Amino acid sequence: MKLKFFSVLTAIVVISGSQLAYAEEPLTPRQSLGQRIFNDKNLSEPAGQACSSCHDESKAFTGNGGSAIAAIAQGSTADKLGVRNVPTLKYMAYSPSLIFRGEADEKGEVNLVPTGGQFWDGRANSLVDQVHGPLFNKVEMNNTDASAVAAKIMRSDYAAQFEKEFGPFAKQDPKMILANAATALAVFESSSRFMSFSSKFDSVLQGKMTFTPQEARGFELFKNEEKGNCLSCHVGKVESTDPTDWLFTDFTYDNLGLPRNQSIPANMNANYFDLGICKQEGLDKKLPPSIKLESLCGAFKVPTLRNVALTAPYFHNGSFSNLRDAVKFYVTRDTNPELWYPKLADGTVQKFNDLPVSAVENVNITEKPYDRKLGETPRLNDEEIDAVVAFLKTLTDEKSE
After folding, report:
1. Is residue 369 helix, strand or coil?
2. 29-189 and 200-400, same CATH topology
3. Looking at the DSSP assignment, which residues form a beta bridge with residue 110?
4. CA-to-CA distance for 64 and 321, rounded, in angstroms?
5. I want to staple 64 with a disulfide (CB 3.0 to 4.6 A). Which of 73, 76, 233, 401 is the partner?
């Protein structure tokens, strides 16, 4: 089952006055405070891990905190490891809170699909809410409560700047200090540093540069519904030259039936499965009557493709270490599954092996290019895959290289 919404979601993000910036601008005082909090390695327990440890600007604000396992991050101590690939923070200020939007199917019936939220499973509604997750996660920054974080902020080297922005600490209880810190972080993460729209693609869009022949072909294949069909999830308004209409995600959720990443320690347990949005706490109470919780199992948020050349490994479980393989998987998953999945003793390919049997029926097998059958010709050949990859590399922001 495919979970998606076909139009680009736009957000108004105030960066300087009421204008969206297409190039990096100087940080405001509050954004500057947020940057200092973002880089503060004293905010973890024990000290040593900052937000920037796992969200490295040179990697488009992804990373793994120095983990020996590429796909997952190391926490505040070396023995603490996550279970998911760290998502980019680039352009995430555009993601709406998790909502259910209507989508008409081929029969004209309207289905409701989950859209938005932060993290791979949408469990935080905003960048402000998102801050609390890493700070208190035992396998990340490992703080016990708001008082522990507030105490660290009050003795930080930016304490005076914090009070200048939010008032004296004496008038703020620990929860308010934490809320104000989250606000400063969110304002920083909504700055042009995180969404500069400074890629070659943006320059081409505005007539300042031109694609190479291979890049241009890749873009056409990307848009072609009979070939890559990438716009069905990584959306853009074809008629628009406004970069904000090209976020390359619709913020919905999809179950791709990815191969299991055996390098993740949690996956050593054959009975462990990361099921994404359906395991979001309290989601069952928010669901519209037409949606059954189990139908969402295995679905993860569609990431932006902006800066994708910098964000390896790919997908929520980091199962692909290079971009070309990630693209090739899309078009050969069903035609040549032996390329990606292990074989059983009888020679049968163990397809969709990162899902329990109950969630396999949720895998997207109808939408192009997933509609091909075993042994059929993939919708993209090797030369065309190379062209799509060449195009994707034009989405790298200039300041991120």
Report:
1. coil
2. yes
3. 104
4. 13
5. 73
CB atoms within 10 A of CB 264: 22
Q: What is the rounded distance in angstroms from the CA atom of residue 218 to the CA atom of residue 202?
A: 16
Nearest to 274 by CA among 83, 114, 115: 83
Rounded distance between C-alpha atoms, residue 320 and residue 354, angstroms: 14
Token reading at 252: 């919905």
For residue 343, the SS3 value is strand
Domains in the chain: boundaries: 29-189, 200-400
Whole-angstrom distance, CA of residue 376 vs CA of residue 362: 22
pTM of the model: 0.92
Residue found by looking up tokens 């716009």 in the block:
231
Please state, in angstroms and rounded to a whole number, the distance separating the CA atoms of residues 259 and 343.
12
Cα–Cα distance, 140 to 105 (Å, whole number):
41
CATH topology of domain 29-189: Cytochrome Bc1 Complex; Chain D, domain 2 (1.10.760)
The neighbouring-strand residues paired with 343 are: 349
Alpha helices, H only, 310-401? 323-332, 357-360, 382-392
Q: Is 292 helix (H, G, I), strand (E, B) or coil?
A: coil
**Angle at which helices 323-332 and 382-392 cross, to 10°:** 130
- Counting every residue, how long is the chain? 401
Secondary structure element (H or E) that encloses residue 399, with its range: none
**pLDDT, tens digit only, all 401 positions of the chain:** 444 433 333 333 333 333 344 456 899 999 999 999 999 999 999 999 999 999 999 999 999 999 999 999 999 999 999 999 999 999 999 999 999 987 766 666 667 899 999 999 999 999 999 999 999 999 999 999 999 999 999 999 999 999 999 999 999 999 999 999 999 999 999 999 999 999 999 999 999 999 999 999 999 999 999 999 999 999 999 999 999 999 999 999 999 999 999 999 999 999 999 999 999 999 999 898 889 999 999 999 999 999 999 999 999 999 999 999 999 999 999 999 999 999 999 999 999 999 999 999 999 999 999 999 999 999 999 999 999 999 999 999 997 44
Integer Cα distance of 7 and 294 in angstroms: 26
